[in-house]
Design goal:
The chain is an alpha/beta fold and 272 residues long. Bound molecules: S-adenosylmethionine.
Length: 272
């Protein structure tokens, strides 16, 4: 029987992803063209409200140039690159999927951010970095794939420095199950949503103090409505990563938010 981690790995397998991405980026010019983080945003910001949400969470987490940041469950590295490009920090992205990690490295080179980003294959519940070595941990739309929240938040607490902070932006359970498939799971077995209260309890039990706690469900619903009204975006999008089910996944996510089945939580916690 597969573990939740193996099932998440299969869901985000990304077979042949690098070749698809390389082909799609030809739209921006020859291979040696240096790309910007904004150009890639529809492709590599793999969460509700895209680069807008990354920017808001980055502002709230009090970054300083030179800090060591860990982006857990980094996907193909959109948020990782955003932080490195805008805040002068060094960001290590960690993801379960080797093909995501390879694609993330390639995209960082294309954006001339190879020196300020590092990508490693690994499990967020056992991050492959030294204990007490990280100033900020960033976790966007990943926890819903992780069943053992106690292990996740304990691991984050462990790798942070004493003055470290943890920033998260994730989907939470509200009233009923989401409609499947959603972007993080095709079936309920791969979805490990927790309520806001359960999330807060798990963070507190891991030794965190909550600095910011915000329900972003309504703002996320409004964003989906605007996206639909605006029609399909130009250029490479997340559909490349998620495949044929992408439209159904996005529609189910928007509908589940609208119906109050699930929510979007922003939280910042510190080690104090
Ligand atoms: C919805 S994507 C979000 C990617 C990225 N955080 C972003 O916002 O663009 C979820 C990512 O979490 C990764 N993931 C899921 N479970 C994980 C785990 N236990 N450890 C590391 N990565 C994990 C998946 O491989 C996938 O890339």
């Amino acid at each position: 029987m597969d573990t939740p981690t193996q099932r998440a790995q299969t869901h985000y397998g990304g077979a042949g992803l690098m070749a698809k991405v390389q082909a799609a980026l030809a739209a921006f010019g020859p291979e040696e063209t240096v790309l910007t983080v904004s150009q890639l945003a529809m492709l590599d910001q793999f969460h509700t409200r895209g680069m807008l949400a990354t920017g808001e969470l980055a502002e709230a987490m009090e970054l300083e140039a030179g800090m060591a940041v860990l982006d857990l469950g980094c996907g193909i590295g959109g948020p990782t690159r955003y932080l490195a490009a805008n805040y002068g920090v060094h960001v290590t992205g960690v993801d379960l999927s080797p093909s995501f990690v390879d694609t993330a490295r390639y995209l960082s080179q294309r954006c001339a951010l190879g020196d300020s980003t590092t990508f490693l294959t690994g499990d967020a519940t056992q991050p492959p970095v030294a204990d007490g070595s990280i100033d900020r941990v960033f976790l966007q739309h990943v926890a819903m794939n992780i069943a053992d929240r106690a292990a996740l938040y304990r691991a984050i607490r462990r790798v942070l420095k004493p003055a470290g902070r943890f920033a998260t932006y994730d989907i939470v359970a509200k009233d009923g199950a989401p409609h499947f498939p959603v972007p993080w799971a095709t079936t309920p077995e791969n979805s490990h949503l927790r309520t806001e209260a359960e999330t807060r309890d798990a963070l507190t039990a891991a030794g965190f103090t909550i600095d910011l706690w915000r329900d972003d469900t309504e703002v996320a619903s409004q964003w989906f409505a605007k996206m639909v009204a605006g029609g399909p975006p130009a250029g490479p999008t997340l559909a490349l990563v998620l495949g044929a089910d992408f439209p159904a996944m996005m529609a189910n996510l928007a509908r589940s938010l609208r119906e109050g089945r699930i929510g979007v939580l922003t939280a910042i916690a510190s080690c104090r």
